[in-house]
Specification:
single chain, 203 residues, mainly alpha, 3-stranded antiparallel β-sheet, 9 helices, 71% helix, globular
Length: 203
Amino acid sequence: MDVNKVIARAKSMLLTPRSEWPVVAAEPETVGGLYSSYILLVAAIPSVALFLSTAVVGVSVPFLGTYYRVGIATALTRAILGYVLALVGVYVVALIVEAFAPTFGAEKNRTQALKAVAYSYTAYWVISIVGVIPGLALLAALAGAIYSVYLLNMGLPFTMKCPTDKAIGYTAVTVLVAIVVFFVLGLVVGSVAGVDPGMTRAP
């Protein structure tokens, strides 16, 4: 994995997506190649942010104004589990994008579907690092999600060869599916990680 190349691609997706999507769509790629060259690294950012915010910085308790840290073991478990499920979730959403392709006049192609999903998620993944700053996690998640939807809508015509007039509908269906998938995965993370009995108040 070329880290400099990953950083350059993420930067281009965030700052110049209109010119980057045609490049992304034309690249010869495989599902495994996308994971090993890009997804494995960038998808780890939210988990790193989660670990730092819960185990090191501390999370705020609504209406109480106090910060608490969870135990290192619990924070690490949640971060790793969240990371693994994120990797799975991206693929599941890509499968749905591929399955719905004919409905929106697009071409069925699993690798291109994964490109559309993974590269559009770049905004959410990268911006999530802001969540380490106390009180900004929700704002960062919201901003990242909105920009990711924008990137997806722009990218579907290039990656899936979706007619531009059907891109909004295709995007809307994909977003709804992604919400369901990650809601379910979030429940899995919460149920497995549980509540940390070693939670302590941050100084």
